[in-house]
Amino acid sequence: AMFTDLAASGADVQSLWRSARSARCEPKSCQTGRISTAEAATQSHTGQDAAVQTEQGKDVLQDFQQEVQVDYTDLLSFLQRVEDTVIKELNKNWESHAFDGFEVNWTDQNETVLCLHTLSYSEARDKNLQVTSVSWNATGSVIACSYGRLDDGDWSTEKSYVCTWNLDRRGLNPQHPDLVVDVSSSVMCLAFHPSQPSLIAGGLFSGELVVWDTSRTEDPVIWRTGMTDDTHTDPVYQVHWLPDTKHRHHSRLLSVSTDGKILVWREERDGRLGLADGFAVVAQQIPRSTRLKKLAWAEAAVGVTSLSFSPFDPHVFVVGVEGGYSLRCSTAAQTPALPPRASSVPLRAPVELAFSPHAGPVYSVSCSPFHRQNLFLSCGTDGQVHLHSMLQTQPLFALQVSQKYLFCVRWSPVRPLVFAAASGEGKYLWVPPPGHQIKREVLLFDLATSTRKATVSLKQALSHCPVYCLEFNSKQTQLLAAGDAAGTVKVWQLSSDFSEQGPREMNHLEQLASESVD
């Protein structure tokens, strides 16, 4: 046959491409390099117990107890020997006042004085109203200011305001108060309640007193005197809260006015403040001192402009009057005021001692919160600050701060040797040339540094805007608020030098108080 089946062996052709790839050690099954992968944990969890205290074994504890051996006979003998010495030293420490008022401050040190906030209310500024008073509430977080006029103007009919800001609030807007209370008459003074943070009292140009509850936004007025025969006939220039000795949970309100009356008001059920007690400062009933110049005292009421109570005697207080005098008074006085006045309660004459006068009206007085002999400061239109002891008529020293008015003076609540004064002129003791801007200042004095000049001058305002009022914060002691005629309130953060008491300040204050005038 021509064709037959035949199984032949296969033909094999060698690949040149594969042999070339093998020479480069590359795999023959693919055309890319080998891909290597590995697993790696991104987080791991390891737990381990570590004891901060260990328990002693019974054997170790028994050995320790056996090692402690007390010779009670020798111990008793030692205690008897040192008993008198220890008691003597403890009595000495108990009688010492070296650290009175001293508190450890754990906060960061502040090296400079800074302006934290500049607060204002646009409607009040548009009307050119002035800040007449400032006050901190019981927690130290809320500042209130009153708007009115202390210069020429139609005081009696001009609408005014009371504004508050919570400085601890996150959304604080310095130009938008948290609360605005419209008042029909100029508000001359304010005082927050010492323990109830929402209550604030105000004295009006009309002679009325009003108490607002700032927690009530609709109608915050809760008490007022109204216009009665007992109401002041002149503007009220200061209000002060007093504890009610008969009712523990109630307070009384004291007011002073240039009508010469010092009145004590109590809360009544119908929302009225009723007269509970009263005093009248009458010229002919003021004790004279042979060291004081004989001035022509008019046989009339003496206008009271300011008041400060002693922190050590609840009956003793000091008032400043328009005649330039500071007067020591007592709520325990029993002498009737002459002549008798129309009043629902008999008025008494409270004055016990008249101090050496300023050359003009006294605008502010402030009792020291530290000294038991009742040092106090006074300032007025003569531009001087007087430091007085209530035990003598002549001042311990008189400091000429300005050639013009000083409107307010306050002791520091934490530094026995520090006080602040509100000035309408500042440190300039000369007549400025035309066009020169006079800086209106808050002046800080540290008597440990100098008794002749201010330690720090804080620039509050420019031009024609004096500083009318200031107040230290007794809770947040590094804060000081000051209000001016431009309608602004500045909150200053004091440096540590002005907010932390030194170890020997009380001794220095005692030395100042012990100085006498020949």
UniProtKB/TrEMBL annotation:
It is found in: Cytoplasm. Pfam families: WD40. Keywords: Cytoplasm, Repeat, WD repeat. One of its GO terms (molecular function) is dynein light chain binding. SUPFAM superfamilies: WD40 repeat-like. One of its GO terms (cellular component) is ciliary plasm. InterPro entries: Dynein_IC (IPR050687), WD40/YVTN_repeat-like_dom_sf (IPR015943), WD40_repeat_dom_sf (IPR036322), WD40_rpt (IPR001680). Its main location: cytoplasm. This is WDR34 protein. It comes from Neopipo cinnamomea.
